[in-house]
Amino acid sequence: MSKKERIRAYYSDIDGRDYDQVMALFADNARYRRADSCYDGKPALDDFFRHQRKIHGTHTLETLIEDGALIVAIGRFEGVGDKGDARAVNFTDVWTFGSDDKVVLRRTYLAFGHEYVLK
């Protein structure tokens, strides 16, 4: 499976809560920089996905760009929070693959609207 196909599958896996498949994508020393948080190492990522991440919903991909070891995914998430409150956000993920063809770095950027810079 190509890198792009593996990243596309990730979003289906996370939406379906298939955490074993999600974790198979990452190297043992992977780092996930998510907005203003950072998770270092596979155990921290696993804990985040299985226990700390409370949102559930659907990711819709608009664009996947591959450049060597990098995959850039641009899309939108729509779902609910842990109390059933509606959640929707545009995102950009930058995935970096290591020499073992596992993800060593993922960076997530979340877009909440232009009003953010007006305050």
What key attributes describe this structure?
single chain, 119 residues, alpha+beta, Nuclear Transport Factor 2, Chain: A, six-stranded mixed sheet, 3 helices, 6 strands, 25% helix
How would you describe the overall organization of this protein?
With 119 residues, this protein is an alpha+beta fold. The chain has a single domain, classed as Nuclear Transport Factor 2, Chain: A (Roll), CATH 3.10.450.50. Helices cover 25% and strands 48% of the residues. The chain contains three helices and six strands, in the order H-H-E-E-H-E-E-E-E. The longest helix has 13 residues, at 3-15.
Describe, in short, the structure shown.
The chain is built from 3 helices and 6 strands. By secondary structure, the protein is an alpha+beta fold. The protein has a single domain, classed as Nuclear Transport Factor 2, Chain: A.
Class based on secondary structure composition and strand pairing? alpha+beta
What is the ordering of alpha helices and beta strands? HHEEHEEEE
Instruction: Report the CATH architecture.
Output: Roll
In angstroms, what is the radius of gyration? 14 Å
Q: In order across it, which strands form the biggest sheet?
A: 2-1-6-5-4-3
Helical percent range?
25-40%
Outline the fold blueprint.
Elements lengths: L2 H13 L3 H6 L1 E9 L2 E4 L1 H11 L3 E12 L2 E11 L5 E12 L5 E9 L8
Parallel strand pairs: 1-6
Antiparallel strand pairs: 1-2, 3-4, 4-5, 5-6
